[in-house]
Specification:
By secondary structure, the chain is mostly helical. The protein has 12 helices and no strands.
């Protein structure tokens, strides 16, 4: 069944195929499929929750960019002509605004071309292995959003490991399957680097300490599982913990981003307010 599913990579990714193969090897396909359904549903819910949490910030950012371009294109040039005719010495916010307007007016086609080329180039690059590695590393290291992706990745790792151990799949074969199904290129490469040490008999928990993405809790629970022979139970507990952590982090995501957006909005509005009102104040003095 797993080999047949590999013929449809757009529908069945590595997670489906590898987990079903593990179920075929261990003779526990129904158990694996049941847990696989939970993982897929949970990850779909996490993605949906993240999109919902980021929807408002994205709308605000788009509106902020639109306001910035609108003020720079229509408001600043009008006032700049008035100030120039009045012979007023322009303050630095107004000078910077006029310079930005001149650049946007004279070289908009170059800017638009650069944006289009960058988007197309990134789209192709992110399809490559190195591109996926750079993207996933960046997402894991991002402030505010990074911890959510890290917890979600650790939850997937623990869930899959628990299924494989419950199904009776040998440790080394489990590690091979884990490497192919983590869903994060940065974690996969880091995991591949320590797999050789695990093969040499160094255990699982100790080599994983060198991977910065694995938290002390995951390492400690793995060590306890190795000593007690209950890795599957320990990993189920880790997966349950990080599932709850992800849900809580997503709920706090919007609250964490909102202050940053408010400050950014205040900076943009304040900058253009200074660009307009500082020379207008001098103009008022001249009129008086």
């Amino acid at each position: 069944l797993s080999d047949a599913l590999r013929k449809f990579p757009k529908i069945f990714d590595n997670l489906y195929c590898e987990m079903i193969r593990a179920g075929e090897i261990s003779g526990s396909v129904p158990v694996v499929l049941e847990r696989l359904i939970y993982i897929i549903e949970h990850e779909a819910k996490v993605r949906s929750d993240i999109k919902s949490a980021l929807r408002y910030p994205i709308i605000v950012i788009v509106a902020l960019i639109g306001a910035f371009i609108g003020l720079l294109t229509f408001v600043i040039p009008t006032f700049a002509k008035v100030f120039k005719n009045a012979g007023i010495a322009l303050p630095w916010p107004t000078k910077i605004s006029i310079m930005m307007y001149s650049f946007l007016s004279d070289y908009w086609y170059l800017l638009l071309g650069a944006i289009i080329a960058t988007v197309i180039g990134l789209a192709y690059y992110l399809k490559t292995s190195n591109g996926k590695f750079v993207r996933d590393s960046f997402l894991l290291e991002m402030p505010i959003i990074g911890p959510v992706f890290k917890k979600a990745a650790l939850s997937r790792f623990a869930s899959i490991f628990a299924i494989l151990q419950t199904s009776g799949v040998p440790i080394m074969q489990s590690l091979t399957i884990l490497s192919a199904t983590m869903g994060n290129e940065a974690l996969t490469r880091a995991f591949d680097h320590v797999r050789e040490r695990i093969k040499e008999g160094a255990g699982i928990a100790t080599p994983l300490k060198s991977i910065k993405y694995f938290t002390p809790m995951v390492i400690d629970m793995l060590a306890i599982g190795e000593e007690s022979g209950k890795i599957d139970e320990m990993m189920r507990a880790v997966a349950s913990h990080y599932d709850a952590e992800v849900e809580y982090a997503i709920k706090q995501l919007s609250d964490a981003i909102t202050p940053i957006l408010i400050v950014s909005l205040a900076v943009v509005v304040g900058f253009f307010a200074l660009a307009v009102f500082m020379p207008m104040w001098d103009l008022t003095k001249i009129i008086k």
